[in-house]
Write a structure and sequence with these properties.
By secondary structure, this protein is α/β, with parallel strands linked by helices. The chain has helices at residues 14-26, 47-51, 118-121, 134-143, 163-177, 199-212, 279-282, 327-347, 385-388, 398-414, and strands at residues 4-10, 32-35, 40-42, 61-63, 73-75, 79-83, 88-91, 96-104, 109-110, 127-128, 147-152, 184-189, 215-217, 220-226, 231-236, 255-257, 261-265, 268-271, 275-276, 312-314, 359-366, 369-376, 380-381. The strands form six sheets. Strands 1, 2, 5, 6, 7, 8 and 20 form a seven-stranded mixed beta sheet that branches. The longest helix has 21 residues, at 327-347. The relative contact order is 0.15.
Length: 421
């Protein structure tokens, strides 16, 4: 095992593999090492479909070794600390590894203790998460005969921020198709004040919610789960108001405690677990030390270069960027990091490419229907100009469903991770 690389990459997920492949495609002589402990590589974007019984979980997995670009060293180990002053990374088993350039892309970690009672609740059949076990989600959805199907998300940043509502729409569609709509209450409770941050897409999604009769509960921040009594308690974050807490004849059985806490019963509960940057990033000099981005990688939002250490770059879920954490975002970030490192190798100056915050959320709204939400920094719509000539991606489309189920997985395995897009 070598102890020094020209380019050292932390993380063998989408961001790490894609950037390594693009660098390798640009210059086959670049000396690259990837630190990644896992033998499995998942296309997690399809797990929403797995959780709705319309995609095979086994098809979302590949062997990590088959995705490492040829000529790149796979260091099957855990990164555990950084010493950027000395261009060094500490690993669990391989000692210190030094670098000329460092790319930090280890993704995100789940905080199962971030909501009181969550860890214990996940051991019950009624509490599920597509982020953890989408097959369990589908078992719970298809097994529900009546009662409350609650879908929710935490106050922390999460990867694929639209995922908690996508599965709510698919579940509602399933209940409708199986004649259970009158017996099942579908609830989507979110800490946010709107269903989506970009207006064009929010208008469509509110129509979807109305069509299914989903109980939409904004400003609901989950605080605790009582898996014995099958209830979830929220903090209502809209100060001075509680008008939307108990409404619709209280069909879902909510109860208020004090001025700002709501307890809701569930028969099944799906949630995205709270998420945070990996500990070895959070506790390092590469992370923001204070403020709302504390713990996340401190990079320039356009160049993705670290704000203190010029030979360090960060991308993907770990980076503190004011946009959604998605694979689509990585597709636009990787070329910027690649160009910048290639330029710095030649002239010690950054390239001209800039990341403008592009991200995409393929919002599946039912079986055979999808809205493709594309946007950039400041919640500005950024739909593909060519695609928009043929289809209004802000509306539900069957063609977009085909893209989600067949097109995007093909592009991921055959183009993205090979550095070809």
């Amino acid at each position: 095992m070598k102890s020094h690389y020209e380019v050292l990459i932390i993380g063998g997920g989408t961001a790490g593999i894609m950037t390594a492949a693009q660098l390798r495609n640009a210059d086959s002589k670049i000396d690259i090492g990837i630190i990644e402990p896992s033998e499995d590589h998942y296309y997690q974007a399809a797990w929403t479909l797995v959780g709705a019984g319309t995609y095979d979980y086994n098809e979302t997995r590949r062997n990590e070794k088959d995705l490492i670009p040829a000529g790149t060293d796979w260091i099957k180990d855990f990164a555990e600390g950084f010493d950027p002053e000395n261009n060094s990374v500490e690993t669990r088993n391989s000692g210190k590894i030094t670098y000329d350039y460092l790319i930090v892309a280890p993704g995100i970690q789940y905080d199962l203790d971030g909501i009181k009672g969550l860890r214990e609740a996940l051991n019950t059949d009624a509490v599920v998460s597509n982020y953890l076990d989408p097959n369990k989600t589908w078992k719970a959805i298809k097994g529900l005969k009546k009662g409350n199907a609650v879908f929710t998300q935490p106050t922390t940043p999460i990867k694929c921020g639209g995922a908690p509502q996508k599965i709510a729409y698919l579940a509602a569609d399933h209940f409708r198709k199986t004649g259970k709509s009158n017996d099942v209450n579908v609830i989507f409770a979110s800490p946010g004040g709107v269903i989506f941050g970009v207006k064009d897409f929010a208008v469509t999604l509110m129509k979807v919610i109305d069509n299914y009769g989903i109980h939409f509960k904004p400003h609901y921040a989950p605080e605790s789960i009582d898996s014995v009594n099958k209830t979830i308690t929220y903090h209502y974050t809209q100060a001075g108001e509680n008008g939307c807490v108990i409404n619709e004849n209280n069909a879902i059985g909510e109860s208020i405690k004090g001025e700002s806490h709501i307890t809701m019963p569930y028969d099944i509960l799906h949630l995205a677990p709270p998420q945070k940057a990996p500990d070895f990033v959070r506790n390092s000099p590469l992370a923001h030390q204070e403020g709302p981005s504390k713990g996340w990688m401190n990079v320039d939002i356009n160049t993705l270069q670290h704000k203190t250490y010029e030979n360090v770059f960060g991308l993907g879920d770990v980076a503190a960027l004011p946009t959604a954490k998605t694979g689509a975002a990585v597709r636009k970030q990787a070329p910027v990091v690649t160009e910048n490192i290639l330029a710095m190798r030649k002239s010690n100056a950054l390239g001209k490419s800039r990341y403008e915050g592009y991200s995409s959320c393929p919002l599946v709204t039912g079986y055979g229907k999808m809205v493709l939400a594309e946007f950039k920094y400041d919640n500005v719509r950024d739909s593909d100009p060519l695609l928009s000539k043929f289809v209004d991606t802000s509306k539900e489309n069957y063609s977009m469903w085909l893209l989600k189920k067949y097109g995007l997985p093909y592009l991921y395995w055959n183009r993205m991770v090979k550095g070809k897009m």
